[in-house]
Amino acid sequence: MAIDDVTKITETIAWTDITEGCKIEAAGNSRLFNTGEWRVDTPVFIKEKCTHCLLCVPVCPDSAIPVNNYKRADFDYEHCKGCGICAKACPVGAIEMKEGGK
Amino acid sequence: MSIRERLSGNEAVAIAIRQINPDVMPAFPITPSTEIAQMVATYIANGQVNTEFIPVESEHSAMSAAIGAEAAGARSLTATSSCGLALMWEVLYVAASSRLPIAMAVVNRALSSPININCDHSDSMGARDAGWIQIYSENNQEVYDNFVQAYRIAEHPSVRLPIMICQDGFYTSHAVENMELLEDREIKDFVGEYAPESYLLNSRQPLSVGAYGLPAYYMEAKRSQLEALKNAKQVTLEVAEEFARLSGRNYGLFEAYRLEDADYAMVIIGSTAGTAKDAVDKLRAEGKKAGLLKIRLFRPFPGEEIAHALKNAGFIACMDRTESFNGQCGPLGAEVKSALFNARLMPEVINYVYGIGGRDVAVENITSVFEDLIRIEQTKDAGDRYRYLSLRE
Fold first, then answer.
1. In angstroms, what separates the C-alpha of A35 from chain B's closest C-alpha?
2. Which CATH architecture has domain A34-102?
3. What is the distance between the alpha carbons of residues B123 and B80, in angstroms, rounded to a whole number?
4. Element (H, E) at B348
5. What does B273-312 look like in DSSP terms, one character per residue?
6. How far is CA B230 from each of CA B222, B299, B300, B316, B371, rounded to the nearest angstrom?
7. Three-state SS for A53?
């Protein structure tokens, strides 16, 4: 049975209703899950130092740095895993890593 | 119209692949690989097929690329053997649980160590629980016929699972036999064009493949996958029936040879079935009621049908061409015994390990197994129920 909405697959689904190979006939489902709760370290965005060069954006493995109008916004903590790659990529020290997931 | 040919088992599979003309073939020549990938690469270079050949850097990558290609919507396959199959282990499960009907030509050869590339079934028997359909072949004709039927079984909407078509290393893969091929057009019509319902390259319908399955979902996902594998049994029979109308050659879940009234039955997989048929004929000529059951479909295991076929035999030898290291049986022995137990049948079952690492098995060796069964009947003493055949003591 094909399912085009991942929210229809819930913890009450019977085995006869689960999709073939757990495929979902839709894209971008990962956005719906708060995987940011796995985070052990947290990047902090220091807005005053940021030049909006956007070098941090493409290196983020979780697309957790939103960009609007060529300017980056604060982190998407629902999806950021705290890997720290952005902090290494930032040339102006506008991202600091702090210990802990919160 | 059939074409008479003299071909090795490797050539037979390569020709079947040429006739099917699949979309993508990733392959890696690990030692010990076979000529199959090389022959298909030649067909591609000659422009005889338009298959995309991906020369990957390992067998793990070969299966991973086949998974990606199949998920994208391409009919994919690869060929492997022995440790090459072992290196694919992790991703074999992904192919099956993502319900991707990839075909794989497996040439059964031993796993090291001691270092050995000769025939036995330890490679594919180790992969038996990966969720793939497994079909085994006795000779070159069978491996060709089985490969031609592979996609029809794997791609069936009620199945959609990957399939291994297995043949015995060297005994059939490298040995040349007389056989009959079907015309290219007949194969193309029989196999048909691949038209997956959902695939990643369909821009009109986005698709997510490879979902994360937490404990609340994993069991339901596996149970659903099992249902598809069980469906493969009926589909295998339907495809075989259609293939028989095309070729005149009949296949079932297994082959029963002089089994109906047999007191002494042997259950075996692969090329040694031919040797065993000679032994059965010889014993029958002496008035001894010997019979044979040759496995074709091993996954899913047709337990009920096999128990039914063995119901009249009081003494059964299960022949395993691999060592399972559990100390009591091989994989075939375990399956046959649980099928018999579920059918509430209690014949004497002796499980032999034979021919591992390419040890030759002659008619006399197989005859000695039947003689063991006759002796057990006479002495009422089974002795060790798990033994090695023709082992130097």
1. 12
2. 2-Layer Sandwich (3.30)
3. 10
4. strand B348-353
5. HHHHHHHHHHHHHTT--EEEEEESEEES--HHHHHHHTTT
6. 12, 9, 6, 26, 36
7. coil
- The answer to whether the CB of B293 falls within 8 A of the CB of B310 is yes
Asked whether B9 and B62 are in contact (CB, 8 A), the reply is no
Give contacts of A 20-49 with B, CB under 8 A. 20-29
Give dist(CA B126, CA B104) in Å, integer.
Answer: 15
Give contacts of B98 with chain A, Cβ < 8 Å: 21-23
By the CB < 8 Å criterion, does B378 face chain A? no
| Residue whose pair of structure tokens reads 């399956």 in the numeric block | B335
Q: Which residues of A touch B227 (CB under 8 A)?
A: 15
Q: Which residue has the tokens 């894209």?
A: A27
Count of helices and strands (H, E) across chain B: 13, 15
ipTM: 0.87
- CA–CA gap between residue B3 and residue A86 (Å, rounded): 64
The whole-model pTM stands at 0.93
- Which candidate from A14, A16, A27 shows the least CB-CB separation from B208? A27
Residues B212, A58, A67, A81: is their CA dihedral positive or negative? positive
* All structural domains of chain A with their residue ranges: 1-33, 34-102
Q: Do B232 and B159 form a contact (C-beta atoms < 8 A)?
A: yes
Q: What is the pLDDT of residue B37?
A: 95
Nearest CB to A26; choose among B197, B206, B225: B206
Q: Pick the closest to residue B191 from B68, B101, B106 (CA basis).
A: B101
- Residue A1 binned pLDDT confidence (cut-offs 50, 70, 90): low
Cα(B102)–Cα(B305) distance, rounded to whole angstroms? 27
Domains recognised in chain B with CATH numbers: 3-247 (3.40.50.970), 254-388 (3.40.50.920)
Mean pLDDT by runs of 10 across the 393 residues of chain B is: 92 98 95 90 96 96 98 98 96 98 98 95 98 98 98 98 98 97 97 95 93 92 98 98 98 98 98 98 98 98 98 98 97 98 98 97 98 98 97 95
Q: Do B99 and A26 touch (CB under 8 A)?
A: no
- Mean pLDDT in residue range A42-52: 97
User: Between chains, do A15 and B206 touch, taking CB under 8 Å as contact?
Assistant: no
Sign of the torsion formed by the C-alpha atoms of B246, B251, B257 and B263: negative
Strand locations in B133-259, DSSP E? 133-136, 163-168, 176-181, 254-257
